[in-house]
Design brief:
Layout lengths: L31 E4 L5 H12 L3 E6 L10 E4 L5 H14 L3 E4 L14 H29 L2 E6 L12 H21 L4 E8 L5 H16 L10 H11 L11 E4 L7
Parallel strand pairs: 1-2, 1-4, 2-3, 4-5, 5-6, 6-7
Bound molecules: NADP nicotinamide-adenine-dinucleotide phosphate (NAP).
The site of NADP nicotinamide-adenine-dinucleotide phosphate (NAP) has 29 residues, from α1 and α5.
């Protein structure tokens, strides 16, 4: 007896554009990409990798710092609702095919010393802003029957440690948000995933851990070194490209083996 699994491909259409053997197309050429938090660190590396591969890249930061590198730029501070709204309006103007929610903040604090306002600020920058940006971008992706969302979570969205409650709460939430979005929009060929970096050589890591902290930490990282931002960026660009046709709803660690050791 033949068993038919699922309905004929109505809900999950096969991709409309495929790379052929020998085709040099890398899968992001001429795509419009919004990357948040492009002034430095991982976001900057992601934006540069998209640009190198022929995408039209639009950036954001809290000041004009890096605007000249991009085709368009939005100055927006996501710790205010007005700042998020500015970015939502920017999304309406550029109508991106790809959204990378990278901007994020962390301020480690013992559980008892958590400041409620700061807790909410971290949730607002790390979860509310990505949610509003996705809500603004998804109608354009649905209209094109193609879209990719990559939200930058963290290893602290999979495991946690002391003094990480506000940050872990935000990154676990970002994973949940991304998963629900992925399920809701898979039928429109909008694929959504998180990438969970381990310890990356950026201002955020150096500011929080310091040299001694980094040295101690690396004992628990099988690869034995920090990641460079472009090691995260290359994977993010692939995941957001036409080359990814079937990965959705995942939270994929790029962490030198840390969360599996
Ligand atoms: P970073 O060097 O501190 O850069 C953060 C970026 O986010 C900057 O472009 C910054 O813009 C922007 N940003 C900060 N506060 C913002 C706000 N209130 N509103 C809008 N934009 C804001 O950070 P990173 O290390 O590259 O981290 C990038 C992402 O990866 C974050 O989501 C972080 O949680 C995640 N992550 C990082 C690591 C790591 O090891 N570094 C590990 C796991 C996950 P300004 O320059 O204007 O402040």
């Amino acid at each position: 007896m033949q068993i038919q699994i699922g309905a004929p491909s109505i809900r999950y259409p096969t991709p409309t554009i495929m790379n052929k053997p020998g085709d040099v197309m890398n899968g992001v050429q001429n795509k419009k990409v919004l990357v948040t938090g492009t002034s430095r660190g991982i976001g900057r590396a992601i934006a540069q990798e998209f640009a190198r591969n022929g995408a039209h890249v639009f950036g954001t930061a809290t000041s004009e710092s890096s605007h000249s590198e991009f085709e368009g730029f939005c100055v927006a501070d996501f710790s205010t609702r007005a700042g998020i709204q500015q970015c939502v309006e920017f999304v309406g103007e550029i109508q991106p095919d790809i959204v990378i929610n990278n901007a994020g903040i962390n301020s480690p604090a013992s559980f008892e010393s958590i400041d409620s306002d700061r807790f909410l600020e971290i949730q607002q920058v790390n979860v509310l802003a990505p949610m509003e940006i996705c809500r603004a971008a998804i109608p354009f992706m649905v209209a094109n029957s193609w879209g990719r969302v990559v939200n930058i979570s963290s290893v602290w969205s999979k495991i946690s440690k002391e003094h990480r409650a506000p940050y872990s709460a935000s990154k676990f939430a970002l994973d949940g948000l991304t998963l629900a979005l992925a399920i809701e929009y898979a039928q429109h060929n909008v694929l959504a995933n998180c990438v969970a970096p381990g310890f990356v050589d950026t201002d955020m890591t150096r500011g929080i851990l310091g040299d001694d902290g980094i040295k101690n930490l690396l004992r628990n990282v099988p690869i034995g070194r920090l990641a460079q931002p472009d090691e995260i960026a290359k994977f993010v660009v692939w995941l957001a490209s036409e080359n990814n046709t079937y990965i959705t709803g995942q939270n994929i660690a790029v962490d030198g083996g840390f969360t599996r050791a």
